Amino acid sequence: MQSKTLNKAVICLSLLGLSLAQNATATEIAKANKKPFLWENATVYFLLTDRFHNADKKNDLAYGRQADAAPLRGFMGGDLQGVIAKIHDGYFSRLGVNAIWITPPVEQIHEGTDEGTGKSYGFHGYWTKDFTKVDANLGSEKDFKKLVEVAHQHGIRILLDVVMNHIGPVTASDTVWPAEWVRTEPTCDYKTADGAIKCTLVKNLPDILTESDKPVDLPPQLVQKWKQEGRYEREVKELDAYFWRTGFPRAPRYYLMKWHTDWIRKYGIDGFRVDTVKHVEASVWKELKQEASAAFEEWKKANPKKKLGDDPFFMTAEAYNYPISDGLQFRMDGGSRINYYANGFDSMINFSFRSDAHLEYETLFSRYANYLQNDLKGYSVLNYISSHDDGSPFDPARQRPFESATKLMLTPGSVQIYYGDETARLLNIAEAQGDAKLRSMMDWSVLQKDRPLALQTKQVPHTYKDSPTYRDLLTHWQKLGQFRAAHVSVGMGVHQQLSASPYIFKRSYQKDGVRDQVVVALDLPLAKTHTITVAPVFQDGERVKDYYSGQSVIVQSGKVELPGKHAIILLGKP
Asked: In what residue span(s) does the Glycosyl hydrolase family 13 catalytic domain sit (predicted)?
C-alpha cells in the first residue's frame, strides 16, 4: 500500500457559508477555506457525459450517426462543455463534490448495433474504437483539457473511466481487430476465473488478450485511421519512445497502458475508475497502477501550479458484485479469492451498499466503520445507492429520497452520487429496456420551478413540509455534501453511538497532524429547541457549526442549543 498523504485541497465557497455565484472564478474559489482531502472520504459525482447537460448542440451527432436508436440507447447530446458549465456555475461545489467520475470520453464505434434490446450506440463510452481520441459527440481534446483545468480550479479531482477488457462491438464499418489482439469467443460462463477472463463478456464484444506477452503490430484499422487524420507518424514515434523507455514487449495490454496513461500525462487527471476488473488478470492492474503513478508524477512535476496536492494517483475497482464484507479478498467466479487492493487499487466499488442501506442507522454505520477501521484499514470502498448498470438500486421508485441521501452521505467510506440521485431522477423508464432504464437524460427543469416531488408516501423528514419539492431534496443533499467535504471524520473517522434515542453519534479522526471530530443527530422530533450533549467531543467555550441549519453556537456546560425546526443536526468546527 502506498502511503496516504494528507493534502490541502480547495473546498468550495459554500463550505464557508457563502453563496456561490454563477460562473465562480478561480480567484473566488482560491479564497475559500482549505480543508484536508482524503480519497477515503471523497464525494464522487458519477455522470454519463452524454446524459448530463447539452451545452453544444452542434456536436449532437457525429461520424454519420443517426437518431435511430431504441429508446435511451442513442446519443442524446450531453457533452464535455455541459460538464464544464455546471462546474463553473457551482453545481458540484454546492453539493460538496470533490471528485467527478466521467464515463470514457474516447472515440466510440461509429455505427449502432443490436444486442437484443434494440439498436444501440456507444453513448456510454464502453465501446471503444480509438483509445487515443475524444469522441466528437462529446467534444474535442481542447474541451477535455479545459474540463480538467476548470475542475482543478474549483478544487475538484477528475476520475477517468478506463477499459482494458474489450473494444467495441463489430459493425460493417467498425471491423474486428486482428486475432493476435482480441478473441471473439467463447462467451464467458463465469464458472471459473478463466471463465470470466479468457472469454467475451457478451457476444460480439471482442476481448483483448491481456494475458499475452506476444509482440503485435498496430491494428491496421488504427494505422489507416491515423494516416487519414494526419497523426500516424506522431503516434508511432510516441509508441516507440514508450516501449524503449519501459522495456515492455509490444503486447496488447502495454499498448493500452500507454494510451490510458497518456490521458494523465497530457491532462493531469487524478485517478482511474477501472471497468470490468474481474475480467482481466489481477497482475495487469498492478502494472497499470505503476505506469499511471509514473505518469501522474511526471505531470505534477511539469505543472506544479496546477496540481491540487501531492497525493498519489488513485484507482478504484469495479469488480462486479464485490461486497464490503469480502474485505481484502474478493470472491472470484469458481470460489477463488483475489486481493485487488494488493494489485494496484486503493478502493473498491461496494455493490452491497444498496441492499445494506435498508438497515437501521446504527447497524449500518457501526458495521461499515468496523470494516474500515479493521480489515480495510488504509483502504476504502465507494458506496452507492444507484448506478448505470445495477438493476437493483436502493429505493428504485425514488419514494425514500431523503433517507437515501442521509444514509449514503453519512455512512463511513467514500460515496458515489449517480447523476440525478440528488433530484430523484427516475430509474425505471417504461419505454426503455435493460440498463437503458437507468440512463435517462438529466432533467434540469425540475429545479427551475418549485415543483413538488412525485411521492406516493408521506415518509419525509420533519424538516420539510408534507409536499417537499425537488429543490428541497437538492438542498438536503447539498447540506450533507458540504458537511462531508468539510470533515474527513465523516467518511474515515472512528464511529461511536452517543445516544440511541434520540439517535446521536460521533466520529473522530486523527492522523498525520490532522484532527477532526463531528457529532450528528438524526430523526429528531420537532421542538422549540434542541439541546444536544457534545461533551467530551467539544469543550466548553468552543464554537461549533450546525451544517444543516447553518447556525454557529458556543458549547456551554457540555451542551449546545439550536432551534428545533430541523430533524437533523450536523455539528463540526467551522
From this structure: 46-484
Task: Count Cβ atoms below 10 Å from residue 186 Cβ, excluding itself.
Answer: 12
Please work out, in degrees rounded to the nearest 5, the angle formed at the alpha carbon of residue 521 by the alpha carbons of 517 and 525.
165
d(CA 203, CA 465): 51
Longest dimension (CA), the chain: 76
What residue has cell string 482511474?
A: 272
Helix, strand and coil content of the chain, in percent to the nearest 5, comes to 30, 20, 50
pLDDT digits (tens, 9 = 90+) for 491-513: 999 999 999 999 999 999 999 88
Whole-number Cα distances in Å, 155 to 10, 309, 565? 4, 10, 33
Q: Measured between alpha carbons, how far is 305 from 390 in angstroms, rounded to an integer?
A: 39
Pick the closest to residue 126 from 118, 116, 115 (CA basis). 115
Q: What angle do CA 27, 33, 38 make, to 5 degrees?
A: 110
Distance CA 368, CA 353 (A): 10
Contact criterion met (CB below 8 Å) for 135 and 106: yes
Task: Report the C-alpha gap between 506 and 497 in whole angstroms.
Answer: 6
Q: Give the list of residues 6+ apart from residue 93 with CB closer than 8 angstroms, or none.
A: 12, 13, 14, 20, 24, 29, 87, 154, 155, 156
Active-site annotation holder among 40, 311, 318, 326: 318
As a whole number of angstroms, the distance between CA 316 and CA 455 comes to: 34
318 is catalytic: yes
8 Å CB contact between 50 and 80? no
371-409 burial, b for 16+ CB within 10 Å, e for fewer?
bbeeebeebbbbbbbbbbebeebbbbebbbbbbbbbbbb
pLDDT of residue 33: 35
Reported as a single tens digit per residue, the pLDDT across 281-303 is 999 999 999 999 999 999 999 99
Q: How far apart are the first and last CA of the chain?
A: 32
pTM of the predicted structure, to 2 decimals = 0.94
| Closest to 155 in 3D by CA, of 83, 97, 95, 81 | 97
Do 340 and 348 form a contact (C-beta atoms < 8 A)? yes
Separation between Cα atoms, residue 163 and residue 179, nearest integer Å: 19
Rounded CA-CA distance 246/219 in Å is 21
In the numeric block, which cell numbers belong to residue 319? 469488480
Give the active site residue among 40, 107, 270, 275: 275
Q: How many CB atoms lie within 10 A of CB 525?
A: 9
In angstroms, rounded to a whole number, what is the distance separating the alpha carbons of residues 343 and 373? 21
201: burial class by Cβ within 10 Å (0-12, 13-18, 19+)?
middle
Q: What are phi and psi of 160, to 5 degrees?
A: -100, 130
Instruction: Please name which of 153, 155, 147, 62 lies closest in space to residue 107, comparing C-alpha atoms.
Output: 62
Residue type, 487: H
Report the alpha-carbon distance of residue 541 to residue 48 in Å, rounded: 47
